[in-house]
Amino acid sequence: MKKVIIYFFLAFISISSVISQNLIKKENKYYDENNNLFSGIYKEYFEKGTIRVEMSLKDGVQDGFTNIYFESGVKNEQRSYKEGEMHGTWITWNELEIKLAEANYDFGSKHGKWYVWDEKGTLRYEMEYIQGVKTGVWKMYDENGKLINEKDYSVN
Fold this sequence. Notes:
With 156 residues, the protein is mostly beta strands. It has a single domain (38-152), classed as Outer Surface Protein A, domain 3 (Alpha-Beta Complex). It has 1 helix and 15 strands. The chain has one helix at residues 2-19, and strands at 24-26, 29-31, 40-45, 51-58, 61-69, 75-82, 85-86, 88-93, 99-106, 109-110, 112-117, 123-130, 133-134, 137-141, 147-152. A hairpin with a 5-residue loop joins β14 and β15. The longest helix has 18 residues, at 2-19.
């Protein structure tokens, strides 16, 4: 029982230090109070106590997922980074948890399929990039999901 209490106390202290972690951002890097590059999970909260931002940092830069929330606690965005660069899939939702956008990056460049939905969840745009360059057939849909326009960015 004594060991359980000690483990609980140590866990509480480590969680408290993460919650109260104050980071300093300078030159796009995050530092702790001792001016060391921060590695770990950083969280910010709204005044009422709900989570606002949760980000994974490694050696002072974003690496892994960053989640952004509405004050209600509903997730607004999920971003992905690698070594401080936008990398992987980014997703945006509205407060009703309807997906509004999905974008893909490769080390800072737009890369792969991109989608945009309206507030009701109807797909409105389909796009594609290769290393930041528009490619493929881009499609636009009306509010009913009917295809209304296409533009071909394929290389001939």
